[in-house]
């Protein structure tokens, strides 16, 4: 037990050095001073930057300091258990140790997220690909998986648009995950996800392979200055619909925006107001254009997302439900037989492995 505590303490010390706690505390003091200025909100863009960064720095410091305190408390509790030969206290220490290992491991992975946009919210689109009605059903299963993952972590989500398929499932859905480092955390999920199972839509109960694509981009901030000329877009309004084409709104409040120069099409129907839907759709379009701009500025797409790139055709993970149960990532080779847990949002082992894998891809090899 003391050895495990020492090892965790050493790992946390390394994390503290990477984060540079003294520099963070100095930055926090400066940000608090800026936030207290009476004229802060006279410049809304600057105010947004200051308050957003202030919240992030406070959260980072609190997280590290809480883990250090928990480690010290666990050490004291362990000494008490040994001195009094108390099995109940030993069990308590072991439970806390497991929690600390998980929390420190997650924080260690977080320190690898140093990309320009990694700290931002994530805009995620799930889209049915090859496989007909099974693919549409699979896309809906993936949507639920990601929303459950966010729920497990206490992250706020908002679904901007859902396009339902006629028989079952969805053609596509777009949602935002609002959490620190959501984009950096989920960026590795970008690509094609493959499902193998006995089709519930096949009367002969044959095995079916279907595909769904996941697109992940960072949410645009005011400082990005993604300007869109009105003459470059076509705006269509229509009535929101639910599963099977069922109308869910009696007014033409849903909005579809087509960016004519690029052909990018986005839509939003989650709000009852056409104005609100248009604003949300424009935010999605800006995020898509930002991502396009970023990729155009790089000689190779893989420099941003690692192997798997930004093509919807790149398969990254297989989910096999028949003839055996297994989910396997094709890049990291992480796998599990607990498919039920994965489809219920337990994907952290895959997400963390992707971040470590990408870090290895981005680090130049030494001769």
Q: What attributes characterize this protein structure?
A:
367 residues, alpha+beta, Methane Monooxygenase Hydroxylase, Chain G, domain 1, Alpha-Beta Plaits, 2 domains, 8-stranded mixed β-sheet, 3-stranded antiparallel β-sheet, 10 helices, 47% helix, globular
Brief characterization of the structure:
The chain is an alpha+beta fold. It contains ten helices and eleven strands.
Tell me what the structure shows.
It contains ten helices and eleven strands. The longest helix is centred in the first third of the chain and has 41 residues. It folds into two domains: 109 residues, Release factor (Methane Monooxygenase Hydroxylase, Chain G, domain 1, Up-down Bundle); 241 residues, Alpha-Beta Plaits, CATH 3.30.70. Helix 2 packs across helix 3 and helix 3 packs antiparallel against helix 4. The protein is 47% helix and 20% strand. It is α+β, with helices and mostly antiparallel strands and 367 residues long. The protein is globular.
């Amino acid at each position: 037990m003391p050895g495990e505590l020492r090892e965790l303490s050493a790992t946390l010390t390394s994390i503290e050095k990477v984060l540079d706690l003294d520099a963070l505390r100095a930055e926090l003091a400066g940000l608090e001073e800026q936030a207290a200025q009476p004229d802060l909100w006279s410049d809304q863009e600057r105010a947004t930057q200051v308050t957003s960064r202030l919240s992030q720095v406070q959260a980072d410091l609190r997280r590290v300091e809480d883990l250090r305190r928990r480690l010290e408390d666990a050490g004291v509790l362990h000494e008490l258990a040994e001195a009094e030969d108390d099995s109940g206290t030993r069990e308590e220490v072991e439970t806390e140790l497991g929690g600390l290992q998980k929390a420190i491991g997650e924080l260690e992975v977080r320190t690898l997220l140093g990309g320009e946009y990694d700290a931002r919210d994530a805009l995620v689109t799930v889209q049915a690909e090859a496989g007909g009605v099974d693919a549409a059903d699979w896309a809906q299963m993936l949507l639920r998986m990601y929303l459950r993952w966010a729920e497990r972590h206490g992250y706020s989500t908002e679904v901007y648009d859902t396009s339902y398929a006629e028989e079952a499932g969805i053609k596509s859905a777009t949602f935002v995950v609002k959490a620190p480092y959501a984009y950096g955390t989920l960026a590795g999920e970008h690509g094609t996800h493959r499902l193998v199972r006995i089709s519930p839509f096949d009367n002969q109960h044959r095995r079916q392979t279907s595909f769904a694509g996941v697109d992940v981009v960072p949410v645009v901030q005011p400082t990005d200055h993604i300007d869109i000329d009105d003459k470059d877009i076509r705006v269509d309004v229509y009535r929101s619909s639910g599963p099977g084409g069922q109308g869910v709104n009696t007014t033409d409040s849903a909005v579809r925006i087509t960016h004519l120069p690029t052909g990018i099409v986005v839509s939003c129907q989650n709000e009852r107001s056409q104005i609100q839907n248009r604003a949300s759709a424009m935010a999605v379009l800006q995020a898509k254009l930002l991502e396009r701009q970023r990729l155009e500025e790089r000689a190779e797409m893989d420099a941003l997302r690692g192997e798997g790139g930004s093509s919807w055709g790149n398969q990254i993970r297989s989910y096999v439900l028949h003839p055996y149960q297994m989910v396997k990532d094709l890049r990291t080779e992480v796998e599990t037989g607990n498919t039920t847990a994965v489809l219920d949002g337990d994907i952290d082992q895959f997400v963390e492995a992707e971040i470590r894998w990408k870090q290895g891809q981005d680090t130049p090899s030494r001769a």
